[in-house]
Fold this protein.
Amino acid sequence: MPRPSRRREAPHYPETADIDLLDVLHALSDPTRMTIVQTLSAEPERACGTFPVDVAPSTLSHHFKVLREAGLIRHREEANRRLTTLRAADLEERFPGLLGTVVAAYRGGGRAS
Amino acid sequence: MPRPSRRREAPHYPETADIDLLDVLHALSDPTRMTIVQTLSAEPERACGTFPVDVAPSTLSHHFKVLREAGLIRHREEANRRLTTLRAADLEERFPGLLGTVVAAYRGGGRAS
DNA sequence: ACGCAACTTCGACATCTGTCGAACATCCCT
DNA sequence: AGGGATGTTCGACAGATGTCGAAGTTGCGT
């Protein structure tokens, strides 16, 4: 019998206590994902399609998944779009100072000169 | 004419100003390399073969190369062994607070519970 | 109802990465 | 000189990763 199709699989997020540092560092080591996090650190919430990155929608979706599963972001449904937020408080609780330090390091010229 | 063979190719390290944040984060996102950095953060200097990791020598050598090229460590020749040191001061200059925060985060239970 | 907008899921594909064993290069010690 | 210790370099190889296009799902407007 045909199971009622859901919109999408409900994404599963790690609990704050289960956030793994190596996963976080790996998630942040990609330029596209770092840009997403940087943008989010300056703005509380943002729709998926509005980030200043230059990749195909499917690629972007993949990066969101990596960030979600690493515990860096959360998604909230609103109308027919998805709003992305940084799990800043959770990260601060789990790894005090980490996110701020990384964001500042990149903002201050993290790419090689 | 046979060029005088050197012991090894002199490894080239990035200048402090050229250290790339994404390279650093990527280098740190591997458990073996993170262990090396952790060990080094508690001890000033250490021979290559004495790190508490469980991989083949060739694999270890590969990880050292990644860490070197990311700007995280330096090697110093002594007798027939190589001493590894953390570029803590350089990193502090380039990305203030980063190394300390990451080391503390991992020490404090960075792996998922 | 129809079409459009916003994302995700699903292959496919090239590249990168971590791992190892074998072979090589140095240096010390006997 | 010979042998052992210490590391590096060189393939090889399986698995992960970033990227895309095509197709599918859901909700809003017209």
About this structure: Chain B touches chain A through 30 residues (CB under 8 Å). Residues 60 and 86 of chain B are 16 Å apart (CA to CA). The first strand of chain B starts at residue 46 and ends at 47.
